[in-house]
Structures are given as C-alpha cells and as structure tokens.
Amino acid sequence: MKIEHVALWVNDLEAVKEFYQTYFSATSNQRYHNPKTGFSSYFLTFATGARLELCHKENLPKVQAERLGYGHLALSVGGKDAVDELTQRLVAAGYPLHSGPRTTGDGYYESLMSDPEGNLIELTTD
Fold first, then answer.
1. Within 13 Å and on the Cβ side, how many CA atoms surround 95?
2. Which of 66, 70, 93, 110 has the most Cβ atoms closer than 10 angstroms to its Cβ?
3. Pfam families per the record (predicted)?
C-alpha cells in the first residue's frame, strides 16, 4: 500500500500552485472545475512521484493551525545545505519561519515554514 496523494484546502488555488511550482519544482495538471458544486482543484506532482491535490470551494470555514487532524506537510529537499538554502530563500521571499533550521531531538534536520495560506511545511533532509 502507498499514499496516493494528500489533499489541501486553499483559498487561492493559483497562488498556492505557484508557490509549490516555484520552490519545490512541482508540476501541475490542468485545473479541474465542477460548476455544479463550485469545487476546483489542481494535482501537483513532485519529482519522486508524490502528489499534492490543492482543493478550493467557496465559503469553506477557516481553521486554525494547531488542531486535531492535519499537522504539517514534510518535504525532503536533500541535505542540510539544501534545507538551509531553501529556508533562506523562502524567508527572503517573505514566508514565515517558525523554527530552525535545527537538528531535532529525534535526529531530523529541519526547518518549519508556512506556505502562502499559513499551512505548515517542514523542510527536511533525505
């Protein structure tokens, strides 16, 4: 068994799609839109084959970052230098750095960032 994809609800499909394409080299399919339900989405594919579905529907309630359920999306970006470089690049572009880069107590080298809508992304080594 494998996880086929992870879905993420967003307010601005285009901005979030551009973020993952720019900083994580994701490729996108064509936008899907169902006019009957108001649902739209993109599937983003990463070099390893992992997929992220960005979903949008008008009038969804906002949620807070720390709650039961989704915690963060961990993306392995290479070695320590790659984590450091991408962290610096994202901070320079104005994205919030919540912690790191650092080695955690359980041995991960990581930093914790936010995407354009505040979803938490853990940048980690391979």
1. 24
2. 110
3. Glyoxalase
